[in-house]
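Renewal narrative, Specific Aim 1. Our central claim is that a sequence can be written position by position from structural information alone. The example that follows is taken directly from our test logs and has not been curated for this report. It begins with the structure tokens describing the chain, in the order in which they were read.
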């Protein structure tokens, strides 16, 4: 299989598109979180994306590992709440995995798997708890099952599709963790905002997402 420029992935461009996606959908993310949480998820994710852009702009050599490490630092060090550190852990795990060889499909699979494990270890969430894990676990599974020769862009598109399916599944769940768990059945029918953020993250590898509606079913 011949890999073309269209099949490859630049982490710097990916992170910049993710920031653009978050900014474009901030209001929608806020409305979702107002229904099941504190209402600050959209603002926190936008703050993280903005801080990540500033760090990306300061890089003199934005290779894949350095770009992801810069974005990870922004989320881990500058953003409060729950979402910032969890997205930071995912980005940090990807940075470590991609540092030696760049954004190959096996490296992406390794990084996301390690990120998922770190998030579950720190946050304690499991699939079915109506958290971002319900989108990240299917994405990790899609990457893990992709043959090593799969073009990275295609592997990430498949991961995005799996993540969005996981997002839609969260609408059928009752939250078992965080503030949303106190709302009981009132969380049913509403996708988890953190899971939506994961969907945005993977979808942004291929382009900017400007409207969540088509992805939420």
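The sequence written for that structure reads:
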């Amino acid at each position: 299989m011949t890999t073309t420029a269209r099949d490859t992935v630049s982490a710097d461009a990916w992170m910049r598109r993710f920031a653009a996606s978050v900014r474009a959908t901030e209001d929608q993310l806020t409305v979702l979180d107002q229904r099941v949480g504190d209402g600050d998820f959209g603002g926190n994710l936008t703050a993280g994306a903005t801080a990540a852009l500033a760090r990306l702009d300061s890089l003199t050599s934005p290779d894949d590992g350095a770009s992801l490490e810069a974005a990870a630092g922004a989320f881990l060090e500058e953003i409060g709440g729950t979402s910032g550190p969890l997205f930071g852990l995912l980005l940090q795990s990807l940075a470590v995995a991609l540092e030696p060889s760049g954004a190959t499909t096996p490296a992406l699979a390794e990084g996301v798997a390690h990120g998922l494990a770190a998030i579950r270890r720190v946050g304690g969430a499991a699939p079915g708890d109506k958290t971002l894990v319900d989108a990240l676990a299917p994405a990790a599974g899609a990457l893990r099952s992709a043959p090593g020769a799969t073009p990275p862009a295609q592997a990430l598109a498949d991961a995005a599709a799996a993540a969005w399916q996981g997002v839609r599944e969260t609408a059928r769940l009752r939250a078992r963790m965080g503030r949303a768990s106190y709302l009981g059945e009132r969380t049913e029918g509403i996708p988890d905002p953190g899971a939506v953020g994961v969907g945005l993250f993977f979808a942004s590898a291929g382009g900017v997402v400007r409207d969540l509606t088509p992805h939420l079913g």
